[in-house]
Design a protein that fits this description.
Layout: H1 2-30, E1 41-47, E2 53-61, E3 65-76, E4 79-89, E5 96-100, E6 103-106, E7 109-112, E8 117-118
Parallel strand pairs: 4-8
Antiparallel strand pairs: 1-2, 2-3, 3-4, 5-6, 6-7
């Protein structure tokens, strides 16, 4: 009887741990958020023609390795808005050029500033032609 209670307890604990891990994995795979990124060290700024500023930061964490974070700063209705729009792991350098007032190229990834880019999910920008991604010539 005592062994049966121990077995049921062990099985129940294993099931609970498995369900909790599964829940965290599902949450992390569906809800990556560009707002909860490490700050990093400021590298440089790039300015658009309509007075938006893209600040590039390099992040070097033991758990993450090297990464680049892009932070967009602009004024809206008299308030300064700051948004993370770019995250790429595995690199500590960035090449930035503005394409138009809503699109910036960072490390050859065309980033619509309304959507952003997150390399953890390999998210590409919606409505970006395949020729810009090197798929078509």
């Amino acid at each position: 009887m005592k062994n049966r209670i121990i077995n049921i307890t062990v099985i129940a604990l294993c099931l609970i741990v498995t369900l909790v891990n599964l829940g965290f994995n599902i949450y992390n795979s569906l809800f990556y958020n560009l707002e909860n990124l490490p700050t990093g060290e400021f590298s440089f700024s790039s300015f658009s023609q309509d007075f938006k500023t893209l600040k590039i930061y390099t992040v070097n964490c033991p758990s993450l390795g090297k990464a680049v974070r892009g932070e967009l700063c602009y004024d809206k209705d008299g308030k300064t808005i700051i948004e993370n729009i770019y995250w790429e792991t595995g690199t500590d350098t960035a090449i930035v050029s503005w394409i138009d007032h809503n699109t910036v190229s960072i490390n050859y990834n065309n980033v619509d500033i309304n959507y952003g880019y997150d390399s953890r999910r390999h998210i590409t920008i919606p409505n970006t032609p395949a020729i810009n991604k090197g798929i078509l010539k």
